[in-house]
Amino acid sequence: MSKTFSYEIKKELSEINNLAKKNEVKYELLGYLSSSNIEKTKNRIKYATENEYNINRFGKLLKNVNINDFKIELQGKVYIIKSKIPEITERLEQANELEERAFTRGLFLGSGSINNPENKYHLEIKIENNRIINDLISILKKYDVNVKSLDNSIYIKDGEEISKFLAFIGANKSVLEFEEIRVQREMNNKVNRLVNCKTANLNKTLNASVEQINAIKKLKESGKFKKLDEGLKELAELRLEYPDMPLSELGKKLKYPIGKSGVNYRLKKIIELSK
Predict the structure, then answer these.
(1) How far apart are CA 219 and CA 213, in angstroms?
(2) C-alpha angle 34/37/42, rounded to 5°?
(3) Per-chain mean pLDDT for the chain
(4) Which of 24, 71, 137, 273 could bond to 102 as cystine, CB 3.0-4.6 Å?
(5) pTM here?
(6) Minimal CA–CA distance to 101: which of 142, 60, 62?
């Protein structure tokens, strides 16, 4: 399969070496079991994913709680694991920080996804029920990570909050990559805004210049141009000669130089007279 940003994050998370810490393992497994990718029937569960690192991590967690009677199957592009339901008595309200991080990591591994940040910022985790959603929101709020919920999922659309979330679950390499992309993207956006602003100003200047030139030509065609005072005539001739020149530069070319506001006033007067 193509190596998406989500795929690489889950690869990194699946390689976290904390399997000797039994409590963290149980909370991470609890996260997997609370995700929307788990199907429960009677005393058995079925978990499906397209990510081989994800399925291998899930298998290791099951072995760690002494469940070995499972096998991993590949159906098309989907890895499937079936197992009896592991006995987990740990409760979230009793969890310490490392265990809360493990639980959140398990949820993300279980049914989380993140868009390529070069295109847009969007992280989402689909979750089994509203109670787990509220539990997760409370955990993340405690560590200053802001998320929103909709239907059976939580999501983040802010780049900085996604960075904080990834750091919280231990995806440190991915945080650095995400931040590098984010900085480059925001730099590009800033450049685009500047270019757009300059283009808009240029268009505004050109449109004004066209209006001024049309007014001058109209005055000449009607014979009214000869009746203008010498200051207006001189400026009008300069505008015809230099159609793209900024007002401040036009003012400097006059016999008796004036500033930008003075040039603007005279050109507006020419336009009014042409009407």
Answers:
(1) 10
(2) 75
(3) 89
(4) 24
(5) 0.71
(6) 142
